[in-house]
Amino acid sequence: MDAKTPAVLVLTGPVRPDEMAGWCAVVREALAGGAGGVVVCDVGGLGPPGLAAVDLLARLELTARRAGGRIRLRDASPGLVALLGLLGLRFQTEGQAEEREPPLGVEEAVETGDPAG
Question: Across-strand partners of 45?
Fold first, then answer.
């Protein structure tokens, strides 16, 4: 891994409180080892979004920021992104539908009386 290549952590669920310190240590080590200031957390295997996952991600982000870096989420479910947003936690994400074209079958509604833009 060179200084520009982010480290990738694959997080799996269920999240257990006794594992959090270990994951934080991995983030610190990755950033100290030249992960380009970013650690990618693949969260596709975390399972249904819940407060334990949110707690883990918040702790990892805090650890990364203290080490001068940040966390980027990969394969985050819309439910997890929504829960994080509801709690006021904003993460950079990879591969979200907002970054590309909307999924098939999704249309934007236009209210009558809206000015054309």
Answer: 12
